[in-house]
Amino acid sequence: METSFEIIQGGMGVGISRWYLARTVSMLGGLGTVSGVILERVFAHELQKGDPGGHLRRALAHFPFPGFAEKVLKEYFVEGGIKNGTPYKMVPLFTVNPSELLISLTICANFSFVWLAKEGHADPVSINYLTKVDMPLIYAITGAMIAGVDYISMGAGLPLQIPKVINAIAEWETATYDIKIDGKNIKKYTMSFDPKSFLGTKPLSLNKPSFLPIISSNLLADLLIKEIGKGNIYGFIVETDRAGGHYASKKRKMDFAQLTKLGIPFWIGGGTASPEMLKWARSVGASGIQVGSIFALCEESGMNSEIRKKIRQLGFEDKLIIRGDERISPSGYSFKVVEMEGTLSKRSIYESRVRICNHGGFFIPFERSDGLIGYRCPAEPINVFKLKFGDIKDTVGRACFCNGLLVTCALGNPGEPPIITLGNDFSFLKKLMKHQDDTYIAEDAMKYLTAVV
C-alpha cells in the first residue's frame, strides 16, 4: 500500500524530538514526530526558562480555550527566565485523579507542541507516547488532537486502549483508560475524562488522527489486529533489536512477507539510517523506515548542544559505546544507553547520586494497606520503595530516567546527571560530516537517506 512518506522521524526520549525538529522533517517530506513523553514537564520547564522566542506563548494564543492557557501561563511562565542554577518549580505528580492544573498543563503542552510542529505548512505531523507512561494519556491525546495531530505512534507495551480514546475524543465524549494496579483486591482503576464538561464546546477543527502502533514481532501485529480491529490501525512501525532507546531485549526475527500479507503499511526501524537500508526496506514490502539517532544528533534536535557535539565526535571516531541495559529503566523495559563520562551510565556517577523521585513519570500504582491507591517507583529511595510494599530487588540498577532525560534535553535541575539513549548504528556520521567537529542539519539527513542507490 502506497503512503505519502518514506521516512518517519522517531519520537525520541524526552524533549529530543521537539516541535522544531518535527516541523522541519515534515516540511522536508518525512513524518516529523513530537515526543509526547512527560511533555507537561518539558513545557513547564521551557516556560520557566522564559519561553525564548515566544513560541509557546504564540501557540497558547491559538488554544481555543484561553482561560486554561492563562492559568498555565500564570503558574509557570517566568519573564526573562529563572536564573542559571535555579531549580525548576515543581509540576504536580500524576495520579489516577490528577489536579485541574495538571490536566490543563498536559492538554496545553501537547496542543502547543503539535500546533507549533504544524505551523505554516500542510504536511502531516505525528506525536509519540509510551504505553508504559499511561496516566497522562487521555489528557495528552486530547491536547494533541485539538491541535490537529495527524498520527499517533505508541510503543513500550500493548496500546490496545488507544483507538477507543481517539474515537471518544473525536466525538467529544468521555474518554476512559484502564490503569493497572498492583494489588490483591484492586487490579485496575478506570480513569475518565469528559472534554466537554472540562473544556467546553467541541472545537470545529478537531482532527481524528491515524494510529501507528510500534511492534517487534508478527505475533504482536496479529494480536493488535485481533483486539482493536484492522480498521483502527493505519500502519505498523516495526522496531528491530537494533533500535535505539527502548528496544526488544530478545531478538525476534520478523517475517516481513507475512506482515505484507496483512495489507497494512509498515516502516522498519533500527539500524536503517542509510539509503541502502531504505531500498532494502522497500524491497521486503515496507513503506519506508523509521530513524532516530540521525535526527537526534542533527542541529534541530532538542538534545543539549554540548552532549550532542561530544556524541558526534565519539561516533565519528568510532569510539562511541552503546550498552544494552535491561535494569536501568524504572519502566522495566530494556534501554540502550550511551557510555559517556559524567552520565548515569558510569557506576561512580550512578552511586553518588542521591535517589529521588520528583517527577513520577514511571510511577507504579499499587494497593495500599488502607485500600487506597499509592504510587512507587523503583528509582526512588530504597527505604521509601520498601515501605510501599515494593520488592527491594526491583530497585537494583534502576536510574531516574525523568531527571536524567530532562538534563539531556537541557531542561534538567542543577546537580542532576544526564542519561542518553541512542541506537547502535552511527555509520551515517561519516556520510554527513567531514571531520569530528563538523555538524549537519535535518535537511542533510533527509537528502542522504533518500539518495538514489
In brief, what are we looking at here?
It is built from 18 helices and 14 strands. It has 453 residues and is α/β, with parallel strands linked by helices. The strands form four sheets. The chain has an eight-stranded parallel beta sheet.
Distance linking N and C termini: 22 Å
State which percent range the strand residues make up: 5-15%
Q: Please count the beta strands (DSSP E, at least 2 residues each).
A: 14
| Count of domains | 1
Going by CATH, the homologous superfamily would be Aldolase class I
Number of helices: 18
Mean model confidence by pLDDT: 94
At the third CATH level, what is the topology name? TIM Barrel
CATH second-level architecture:
Alpha-Beta Barrel
Q: Name the helicity range.
A: 25-40%
- Side-by-side strand order of the widest sheet: 1-10-9-8-7-4-3-2
Rounded to an integer in angstroms, the radius of gyration calculated over CA atoms is: 21 Å
By CATH reckoning, the class would read: Alpha Beta
Your description of this structure?
34% of the residues lie in helices and 15% in strands. The model has no long low-confidence stretch (mean pLDDT 94). Helix 1 runs parallel beside helix 5 (100-118) and helix 5 runs parallel beside helix 6 (137-146). It is built from 18 helices and 14 strands. The strands form four sheets. Strands 1-10-9-8-7-4-3-2 form an eight-stranded parallel β-sheet. Strands 5-6 form a two-stranded antiparallel sheet. The protein has a two-stranded antiparallel sheet with strand order 11-12. The chain has a single domain (7-449), classed as Alpha-Beta Barrel (TIM Barrel). It is α/β, with parallel strands linked by helices. The radius of gyration is 21 Å and the shape is globular.
